[in-house]
Design goal:
Helices cover 51% and strands 9% of the residues. With 493 residues, it is an alpha/beta fold.
């Protein structure tokens, strides 16, 4: 069951203890004023169809806690403690007044917040925030020399705007997968399942050779240098031990024993790991379709990106688009895919939002296949980069245009860098598929909130420069104001 909150309150209505004086200029106060809470709450309340049960936590508290966690990289426990101790964070989360008597929620509820706020829901919330910010920007008076991020580039057929697209990988927090260590972990989990299924009344426990298996594993890992022969021998031994454990588990299950849903899923993962490792061992290969690289996170797949220093990454692959400085999560999957296949779908979503196609798309070489080139030519869109194949005789390329296209395309790389350094995408700590996807979508939402904050600082600079009496004293004071704004703007990027 869900009850609507009181909505956005002003800082003057926020009940403060005697001696406390919260400032309007605080970034969390400004950030709270830029989010359309009531519109988002209507979308969130639709998720609660059952009118029975306990009252759910307000949307502002759930979303606010997730934003704070993405901003600072806090754990679930630390997020709850910081909200309890910080009056600005309490105002951001919709508190009517400062209250440090108890935790705002049990830290375990953060898992349910992440499950409830799916990537689809966060995508809609992101669109609401972007739409509201763009509407407010249109109402505000703009100076000609104001640093405006909007793109006015126009093309043929009524197309306008620029869409920048690219793909990256959000690595998950897993140990670097090695066949021997993966088999050892699978064997240990199979032995735990066997311990759960065994009843002392049934007699003696089936022999598993767990001590010998552990000794063989440590003997291999403690060697400084592993030869191919040593590795293959160690894999063969662990496969034998794991096969014995799985046979013992199957024997217990045949007697009518049962497992919980979580244990059954873990057992299925172990069986799949054994089958994949056995296939690679018998066929002397190192690749197999849908290879599992983690027992605890079986949805994670190796993503071959070919980057320097990291040819293979383990996590989710995602596509983002940047339009007028606003970032959107276009696709997110834990399976490896060719990002070029999503270009047409991303372009159609651009047309649904804006009412027209973009005049140009800035992308790297992988997006330039024949299907995408034909699609862009049909709709009057210029796809950056040279044509496929050998250059035609007498053909000349506009090198200046190619240079500026590449300079503008760097914007999407900046977004990736900021998301991984400041917004939690650099290492996804969530251990479930749905919560990991939430972390990625939340990082994109926080990126746009940071852009709104930077835009506010630029507007503040303009107002100070235009209307402050200090500015009449000379250009020196104006330069100081601009430098201060520049420092704050970069600090929040």
């Amino acid at each position: 069951m869900y009850r609507y909150s009181n909505g956005q309150i002003s800082l003057s209505d926020f009940k403060q203890p005697v001696g406390m004086n919260l400032k309007e200029s605080n970034r969390w106060v400004k950030k709270a004023q830029t989010i359309p809470w009531l519109e988002i709450e209507k979308r969130y309340a639709a998720l609660f169809t059952n009118r029975k049960g306990n009252v759910a936590k307000p949307l502002r508290l759930a979303l606010g806690a997730c934003i704070i966690q993405a901003e600072y990289g806090y754990s679930d426990e630390e997020t709850a403690l910081q909200i309890q101790e910080n009056p600005y964070l309490q105002y951001f989360c919709g508190y009517p007044g400062y209250d440090d008597e108890k935790l705002p929620f049990d830290p375990s509820l953060m898992v349910y917040f992440r499950k409830r706020l799916t990537p689809e829901v966060l995508g809609e919330i992101n669109e609401m925030i972007v739409r509201d910010a763009k509407n407010r920007q249109e109402k505000e008076a703009k100076s000609k020399d104001d640093d405006d991020d909007s793109d006015t580039h126009r093309g043929a057929g009524g197309n306008s705007g620029t869409m920048i697209v690219d793909a990256t990988c959000a690595p998950s927090n897993i140990r670097y997968p090695q066949d021997v260590s993966l088999l050892n972990e699978a064997r240990e989990n199979a032995e735990k399942i066997l311990d759960v299924l065994h009843d002392p009344a049934d007699g003696k426990k089936p022999r598993t050779y767990r001590k010998r298996a552990r000794k063989d594993y440590l003997k291999y890992t403690r060697c400084r240098k592993h030869t191919a022969k040593m590795t293959r021998k160690a894999i063969g031994k662990q496969l034998t031990y794991l096969r014995r454990d799985l046979d013992a588990v199957d024997g217990k299950l045949s007697l009518g024993k049962s497992l919980t849903t979580r244990q059954a899923e873990r057992l299925d993962t172990i069986r799949t790991i054994y089958e994949q490792q056995k296939y690679m061992y018998d066929n002397r290969t190192h690749s197999v379709p849908d290879r599992i690289v983690s027992v605890s996170q079986p949805f994670v797949r190796p993503i071959v990106r070919g980057k320097a220093g990291k040819p293979v990454e383990f996590g989710a692959k995602l596509d983002i688009s940047v339009v007028d400085g606003w970032t959107r999560l276009e696709c997110c999957s834990f399976d490896a895919y060719n990002e070029a296949g999503n270009l047409q779908e991303m372009t159609e979503r651009f047309r649904e939002r804006e009412g027209h196609y973009p005049s140009r798309i800035l992308a790297d070489r992988i997006y330039r296949n024949r299907e995408n080139l034909s699609y862009c030519k049909e709709h009057g869109i210029r796809l950056s980069g040279p044509a496929l194949g050998r250059p035609k005789k007498g053909e000349t390329r506009d090198k200046a245009q190619d240079y500026w296209d590449e300079c503008e395309r760097v914007e999407v790389e900046r977004r990736f860098s900021l998301a991984k350094r400041k917004c939690g995408m650099g290492l996804v700590m969530a251990r479930l598929r749905e919560t990991a996807a939430h972390v990625i979508a939340m990082s994109v939402l926080v990126l746009n909130l940071r852009k709104i904050q930077c835009a506010f600082l630029r507007l503040l600079t303009y107002l100070l420069a235009a209307f402050s009496p200090v500015c009449k004293m000379g250009n020196c004071s104006l330069d100081i104001i601009l430098k201060i704004s520049h420092i704050f703007s970069h600090r929040h990027r």
